[in-house]
Design brief:
Elements: H1 3-22, H2 29-49, H3 54-71, H4 80-93, H5 97-120, H6 124-129, H7 131-142, H8 155-175, H9 182-204, H10 212-240, H11 247-278, H12 288-320
Transmembrane segments: 100-119, 169-202, 214-240, 261-280, 286-308
InterPro entries: SpoIIM-like
Keywords: Membrane, Transmembrane, Transmembrane helix
C-alpha cells in the first residue's frame, strides 16, 4: 500500500485518538486498550514499509503518548479481585454475548440430535454412554434407585473428583478452540449429544421426573460448559476473523479474552461439585420444592451474571464514559 493511501485510510482514527489523549478525555479502559493495539499495529506496519517517513515519526510519538497514559496514570484497585468479579469481567463479557448465543445454539442442536436419535434407535444410548453405564442404570431402576450412582463414594471424594473433572472439561472446551474453533464445536457437540441421550433414556424408561436430581448440580455444570465453549470460540474466531488486527495479534487477544472467560467459571464449577458431592446424593429425599428452588436459583445466577448484569453495566458505562471525538483537529498529519 502506498504511504498516502495508508495515511488517508487511518488518518481520522489517529486524529481522534490524539485529540482524546491531548484533552484528557475519559475513555473506557477496554476501548483504550483496543485503540492502543490498533495504533501499535499501524506503527509496526509503518516501520516495515515506510522507514524514516514522517508518518512513522508521528505514529511513534502518538504511541509513546498513549503508553504514558495507560501505564503512568494507571491506578490499581485495592480490592482487585472483588472489582474483577463485580465490574471488570461482566463489562468485558458483554462484547461476547453474540458468541455466547451461537455457542448455546450449537449445544442445543447437539442435545436435540442426541434426544431424537435415542427416541428412534434403542442402541444409540449404548453407543453414546456405553454398555456398562446403561446396564448399571437399568439395574438401579429395577431396584427402585435410578440415581444410586450419585450415592457411591464419599462426599468429599465426589466433590473433589467432580470439580477437577469439570474444570478439565472446561479447559478442554477452551483449548480446543485453537484448532480454528472446530475443536470447541466438537467438545460442545459430544457433551450435548450425551445430555440429550441421557435425558431421553430416562424418558423412555418412564422416569423423566427423576432427572431433577441430576439438575441439582447439572444446571450450573451444563451452563458453564457452554460458557467455556464460548471462550473457545472467542479464541478460535479471533484467528479466523482478525478484523483490523494481524492474525498473530488477534489470536493473542482472543486467547487472553477466552482465558479470562474460563477463569470466571472456576468458582461455579466448585459450587456444582459441592452440590453433586453433598446434596445430589440426597436428591430423592429432598422435597421437590427445595430441589426446584436450588435448580431455579442456579439458573438465575448464571443468566443474571453472564447476561443481564453485563447489559446493565454496559448501559451505565456508556452514560459515564465519553466516546472518542471524530472531529479532525490540527495535527502533525497534513
Amino acid at each position: 500500500m502506498r504511504e498516502a493511501s495508508f495515511v488517508k485510510q487511518n488518518k481520522e482514527k489517529w486524529i481522534g485518538f490524539e485529540n482524546a489523549l491531548d484533552n484528557n478525555v475519559k475513555i473506557n479502559p477496554d476501548d483504550l486498550a483496543s485503540y492502543y493495539i490498533q495504533l501499535t499495529n499501524d506503527l509496526s506496519y509503518a516501520q516495515t514499509y515506510y522507514p524514516g517517513s514522517k508518518t512513522l515519526l508521528y505514529l511513534n510519538s502518538l504511541a509513546s503518548q498513549a503508553h504514558q497514559k495507560i501505564y503512568i496514570t494507571k491506578k490499581e484497585s485495592k480490592n482487585k479481585i472483588i472489582s474483577f468479579w463485580r465490574d471488570e469481567f461482566p463489562l468485558f463479557f458483554y462484547q461476547y454475548h453474540k458468541t455466547l448465543l451461537y455457542t448455546f445454539l450449537i449445544f442445543m442442536a447437539a442435545v436435540t440430535i442426541g434426544a431424537v436419535s435415542t427416541l428412534n434407535d434403542d442402541s444409540f444410548i449404548r453407543l453414546i454412554l456405553g454398555d456398562a453405564y446403561v446396564n448399571m442404570t437399568l439395574e438401579n431402576i429395577e431396584n427402585g434407585e435410578p440415581m444410586a450412582v450419585y450415592k457411591s463414594g464419599s462426599s468429599i471424594g465426589t466433590f473433589l473428583g467432580i470439580t477437577i473433572n469439570n474444570i478439565r472439561v472446561a479447559i478442554m472446551a477452551f483449548a480446543c478452540g485453537a484448532i480454528f474453533s472446530v475443536g470447541t464445536i466438537y467438545v460442545l457437540f459430544s457433551n450435548g449429544i450425551m445430555l440429550g441421550a441421557f435425558i431421553t433414556f430416562f424418558y423412555n424408561q418412564g422416569i423423566l421426573e427423576k432427572t431433577s436430581t441430576v439438575w441439582l448440580h447439572g444446571t450450573i455444570e451444563i451452563s458453564v460448559i457452554v460458557i467455556a465453549g464460548c471462550a473457545g470460540l472467542v479464541m478460535g474466531n479471533s484467528f479466523l476473523f482478525p478484523k483490523t488486527y494481524s492474525r498473530r495479534v488477534a489470536f493473542m487477544k482472543g486467547a487472553k479474552d477466552g482465558l479470562k472467560i474460563v477463569v470466571s467459571t472456576i468458582p461455579l464449577f466448585i459450587v456444582a461439585g459441592f452440590i453433586e458431592g453433598f446434596i445430589t446424593r440426597y436428591g430423592e429425599q429432598i422435597h421437590w420444592t427445595l430441589a426446584y428452588s436450588i435448580i431455579l436459583l442456579s439458573l438465575f445466577i448464571i443468566v443474571y451474571y453472564y447476561i443481564i448484569y453485563p447489559i446493565k453495566l454496559n448501559k451505565a458505562s456508556k452514560s459515564q464514559a465519553v466516546s472518542l471525538p471524530t472531529e479532525s483537529p490540527k495535527s502533525l498529519l497534513t
